[in-house]
Amino acid sequence: xxxxxxxxxxxxxxxxxxxxxxxxxxxxxxxxxxxxxxxxxxxxxxxxxxxxxxxxxxxxxxxxxxxxxxxxxxxxxxxxxxxxxxxxxxxxxxxxxxxxxxxxxxxxxxxxxxxxxxxxxxxxxxxxxxxxxxxxxxxxxxxxxxxxxxxxxxxxxxxxxxxxxxxxxxxxxxxxxxxxxxxxxxxxxxxxxxxxxxxxxxxxxxxxxxxxxxxxxxxxxxxxxxxxxxxxxxxxxxxxxxxxxxxxxxxxxxxxxxxxxxxxxxxxxxxxxxxxxxxxxxxxxxxxxxxxxxxxxxxxxxxxxxxxxxxxxxxxxxxxxxxxxxxxxxxxxxxxxxxxxxxxxxxxxxxxxxxxxxxxxxxxxxxx
Length: 368
What we know:
Strand content: 25-35%
Order of helices and strands: EHEEHEEEHEHEEHEEEHEHEHEH
Largest sheet: 12 strands, mixed
Strand order of the largest sheet: 1-4-5-6-7-15-8-14-13-11-10-9
Number of helices: 9
Shape: globular
Structural class: alpha+beta
Low-confidence stretches: none
């Protein structure tokens, strides 16, 4: 194994980090690479207000052979705002065995700044190698405490017709003048969920930041009689800075793709694009609904899907297993993906993890 030392990445590492991110392909039936660019560090802005990228360098060549990200942002925990961490993007290449334990020892030293009591992290269920290693309890690793599953589904815009309409619920695109109402509503509803992000005025409708690239027209508002706000949701397009590329799939699917897509079209499923192409989709984001009313959520989802029909191939939606809206997704045709959610902590965070109460969990899919 090559000798590797760890440090924080800087602007001069942008090119290598982009190449490593694009070269690392997630295992599975459909092999996908999660690309970032043109600025690796700008793409990380959606993950947190405070961000660090740890890089492992080959001691001889100085080349980056692996990296991971640590970020922090304010979330609602037990109804109160707290800074919570997020660990993401562990990627390795170029060496036979990347010293993960060494990387986590370095991460543990960074954690000593006491900016966050614990961290959220997710591991795709098909990535068994990472699950086995990170949850092994080996000396030098933090505790990976399982905290339920994140259920995601890729939805074709064609399923909009499967969602019911309601004469008492009106949906419209948001406007910049709605921002004060949006912020008040998100604060009111967000505190009822675990890990709902805490947003401020400076986060909205900007070219950068936590909601990088999100525009007012990307949001849908559901209103009742007398214009009362019942709920909101957004279609967040991150393709300009966080794209996903379908690298490959089994050989039989390449030959059968026209027939498979015909079947998918009949069943209102997302079509399979050619291997090597970028996946054209948006994230369902900022979902907040009064009293978790499924009729209101269905109306918002219908609005966003119908509006995106000529813009995107599919929507990526996802909810934690404890969230009521997971039931709505279950009833719709689509491609399912699962990840296990973990609360990651060092010894000083064990008590904070135990104190997390049983409120439904909301994870902002566009920030994972």
